[in-house]
Amino acid sequence: IAQAFFCLLLCVPWGSSCPPSCQCTEQAGAKAVLCSSRHLEEIPKDIPKDAVFLKLDANSITRIPSNAFRHLSHLEELDLSRNAIEKIDRAAFRGVAAGLRTLDLSSNRIRSIPKEALLALNAKLRLANNPWHCECALQEVLWEVRLDPDSVQDITCHTAPREEYVGKPLLQVLDAGVNFCSVRQRTTDVAMFITMFGWFTMVIVYVICYVRHNREDTCQHVDYLKSLPSAQ
To answer: What sections of the protein cross the membrane (predicted)?
Structure first.
């Protein structure tokens, strides 16, 4: 009996276990893990390693931590839409970025996302219906990723450096010639100019004080020499 039990342990496909809050099925020979609308507040830890399709939509997930899917080397489609995601770590998709074909982050609470989190992605990305803060960082993200063309118009500016951009599709704002990164560059240039001007002013003040001090010392020395009795 002990030998049979040991053999059974060795033969159990541990990578094919299914989280208790999810349903695992086979679709055309590929494993699909369905965890939609399960009141999840975080990503399950025991997702099967051979999962190809993973649906985590319509839950209450607030954050995607680093290496959240790293063990899922076969993952091709990841749906995280309709959650409460506010924070995405820089290494959130490490280990799966190259293999993903679609990544859905629409209808969350994402205001900004680190560019590093998406750099290696080849997936078609959905970012619509999030309260985006339109700035240089978001513009750089859009330059780097491959967006789903059907959802591009729904990436709108919830907040922005200028009130006139709020409520408008980001693509429309950029097409109008707005460059959030050049605005940041101009701000940086102004800050550098002010700093340099401040240093220059300090140097000038120092030189003036130094000259005045030396002049006073010289005058005092001359007066002292004049006060001495002349040599016979």
So the answer is: 190-211
Determine the Cα–Cα distance for residues 158 and 11; give it in Å rounded to an integer.
53
Q: What is the pTM of this model?
A: 0.73
Q: Enumerate the H helices of the chain as residue ranges.
A: 2-11, 136-144, 170-175, 180-227
What pLDDT score does 205 carry? 62
> Counting beta carbons within 10 angstroms of the beta carbon of residue 166, is it exposed (0 to 12), middle (13 to 18) or buried (19 or more)?
middle
| Cβ-based neighbour number of residue 142 at 10 Å | 17
C-beta separation of 125 from 138 below 8 A: no
- Mean pLDDT of the 168-193 span: 72
Is domain 23-178 annotated with CATH 3.30.565.10? no
54 sits in which H/E element: strand 51-55
pLDDT digits (tens, 9 = 90+) for 210-231: 667 677 666 666 666 666 665 5
How much of the chain exceeds pLDDT 70, in percent? 73
CB 104 within 8 A of CB 83: no
pLDDT tens string 133-152: 999 999 998 888 999 999 99
Q: Which pLDDT value is given to residue 5?
A: 35
Residue ranges per structural domain of the chain: 23-178
Residues 6+ apart with CB under 8 A from 116: 90, 91
Q: What are phi and psi of 194, to 5 degrees?
A: -60, -40
Given a contact cutoff of 8 angstroms between Cβ atoms, the answer to whether 85 and 62 are in contact is yes
